[in-house]
User: What shape does this take?
Amino acid sequence: MASDQATLQGMIDYDIDRRKRFVDFKPEDASRIVAIKGLVERHADEHAAAFFNYLSQFEEAVMLFRNPDMLREAKRLKHEHLLAMVSGEYGKTYIEQRVLLGALYSRAGLDSRVFLGAFHQLMQSIGRKIADMFASDAQAAFQHFASVNKIGFMDIGIIVDVLIAERERTIRTQEKAILELSTPALQIRDRLLMLPIIGLLDSLRAKQLTDSLLHSIRAARAKVVVMDITGVAAVDSKVANHLIQTVTAARLMGTQVIVTGLSSEVAQSLVALGVDLSKINTVGDLQGGIEEAERALGYKVVTVSEPAAQRARL
Amino acid sequence: MPVPILKQGGILIASIQTAVTDQDLVQLQDDLADKVGRFRSRGVVIDVGALDVMDSFATRTLRNLAQALKMRGATTVIAGIQPDVAFAMVELGLTLDGILTALDLEEGLGMLTMPPQEDGHSVG
Assistant: This one.
């Protein structure tokens, strides 16, 4: 989990003073919290139980409860959290501890709404004890609870940051995986490449695709490239422009590109959009494209069995 | 440094090096137009494989050059545009329309000595 921490470092704001300012945390809040420190410490287990008991009733949190190691760790961190929460001292370590807990929630796939609900239960549990303590002075009870609440909201801010950061990181990892998977340029004959394009073609991918194609052309000394777009979900004017750019760039390197796999719907919609594909050599299907490419390269495909059979008859 | 022009049979070869100035390119255009007439060349290959940048001036000069040489009776092939250069050119809208391009010098010479026939051109 050390690497997890390291990558999260860059994504989370560790400036405690900024965070304190956001929740309007003042020195008098710290002194009020110290006044109820003993109270919260004494009932820490009860407060933690309020949190976990509430969580356990939701199936959104089921992953946490199915994994005993994770649950034990979460309970330990939560206990630590409660003690740290009322310590009156909040520094970088405080944020680091919260990030650790947030990362654990994220691994457990905890829904942020469920987390917020449970956190509210925990605060209520603390609030009830404070109300008991200041039974005669409602004003003081409210003030003390408000001070703890500020820290509570700061904690929520950190945890939510971690949950969002984790999600963003997942998205980024997946994007990278898709990019790496997406564009193989396959050599199918000497100096003939084939480029099957599948999925959505956005600017980023089109750029990456053109780049990898040009380098493959260089490496394979390709004279003809057959680009098959049967698997491209939607071809609009933007995608068509990307294709034109790719074809033009390949032409600058002296390579002919044949585009195949334009379905009848795609062809009609491109015509309706007024996209000019006259610069592109298009052939109906992949087979036709490869045949055309073979012709351009001077290949002639003959079946072996038939002439042999004819010869035998003679 | 002016671009050297080599004569190989009926073909002229100009190999542009990395440190080429706008002035050198204009000079190349003059030299080639002159030599094509003098040597009665029918083809010119301009090798730009050493260039890692092709700006709009260079592209326009090459296009003008090709059109001028056409009028003097020679076909021009631009050979060896690098992948990254090709990509950048397309993004800038410099597409060299109507001008022959080849993968490298060898390929460019092949195109001029063995022009494409009706049934396509031969491999290699």
Notes: Chain A has two domains: 2-179, 186-297. Chain A has a mean pLDDT of 86. The domain at 2-179 of chain A is CATH 1.10.490.10 (Globin-like).
